[in-house]
Task: structure prediction
Amino acid sequence: MLTNDKKILIIGMGLLGGSYAEGLTDAGYYVGGLDVDKEAIRYAYDKGIITSGDTVVRKQFVEMFDIVVFAVYPKVMIEWLKKYQSFIKPGALITDVTGVKGWLINELNSFLRTDVEFVGAHPMAGREVGGVKNSTKEMFKEANFIITPTIKTTLTGMSTVRDIAEVLEFKNITTLSVEEHDEMIGFLSQLTHCIAVTLMTCKESSDLVEYTGDSFRDLTRIAKINENMWSELFLLNKEELLNQMNLFLKQFNELKETIENDDVEKMKDIMRLSTIRRSYFDR
Amino acid sequence: MLTNDKKILIIGMGLLGGSYAEGLTDAGYYVGGLDVDKEAIRYAYDKGIITSGDTVVRKQFVEMFDIVVFAVYPKVMIEWLKKYQSFIKPGALITDVTGVKGWLINELNSFLRTDVEFVGAHPMAGREVGGVKNSTKEMFKEANFIITPTIKTTLTGMSTVRDIAEVLEFKNITTLSVEEHDEMIGFLSQLTHCIAVTLMTCKESSDLVEYTGDSFRDLTRIAKINENMWSELFLLNKEELLNQMNLFLKQFNELKETIENDDVEKMKDIMRLSTIRRSYFDR
Result:
């Protein structure tokens, strides 16, 4: 349970970390921040979204906190814990915000102290701009929050993470298994980014700007991409992403064949299925 | 020139035909309508967007008009002209709204009377809903209008079609060669529809609705597709569309290889190029 006396440490004071800090501070919690970037910590402190912060990892600071939220890239999180997990208070709850879960939990299982608990979470929120200066708790209001429990997850750990999501006012809080989560992300998020990037890079198209309607803009909005974050996420979910890419390729080639063969009836069948399926996604 | 005394016949009283009719009638032109659907003609007449209309093709009616706008599928247009072109007034200007031009102009070159002139046009406007009841001239305000002249196009024909676009208040009026147009449409419009349809049909995804963020919705918005219109458009621009599909496939497979081979540097290069190119499309 996320009782009022719980102190929360946020590691990584970027867009997501800053937005968590704002939401939790506004709800009355004691929030600390850690980031190597002095400017980010200063900004968060001046804005009043953290009560204390540091740019160096110190035991006396880290051990104050009951809950530790990692708002950094998955590999940074693992490296941090390998170095500093001994600083964390026994019984503390650890959670995260990353978009890959299988890889992360495998890693954690191999070395995480058994007197702390990790409960994975994926707040499906983001903006086209990053950094603490663009952070805002408002971005959670329309977003999904997914918790990915495992057989080791306790009821207390689960309910604490759920409470965090409720305090942050996520629109929808659900749970998925680690495997379901990674498949879903491979399809809905990673495959769509691969498609957008491909469409944007498969030919020089700047001369087409003036003819571009909404379709092309819609399909390439996410082609502006943070290459450091996404290359890491792609490779940490490699197997699932390749599965989803192959599914897409198979169907794309099938559609292509109907065009090559003037197979109007099959083409129309595919289009009708597409129309029906898309209608489930209207809102 | 589109002088005020010009009478304009619109063949096909659907979404585009109705919107043309509204815009031209509101600007003071005499607009007639032809459609096999009695309800559509009655609706357009009752709404006051046509002055006269018919559901049967009669010489006395057709020969009244100086300008004939085909707002029907390309094949329907060709069939209509083959049957009824003798009804059209000598010297009349013929234009269209279809998204394929090479095929259409090849066909017309083989049989169209030499005492009438065809000037191809492509108003890049549409809505997710069809039919005259959803027509509105408002949909042109943010849209591009492309004229596709050939070596046979006269200055008069060209300026008349440009005037129509201006009266309809298109945001942007440009010209492209037939080949440039069909390549551009193959890439920006047809390929994007193929991708959206493929993404929507490559796997059963209705259980993912609640996890879907904006990315997947953006990429599949156009996956609700009119199978009769689009299968015809795809096949009439077959060669160009297949070219564009192959370009996309080549690049998609290249991105896939970087994932398979853990080639982070090349993956980041592709993503950086994508980010730079997409920035040209911001507005």
Summary: Strands of chain B lie at 7-11, 30-34, 52-54, 67-70, 93-96, 117-124, 144-148, 172-175.
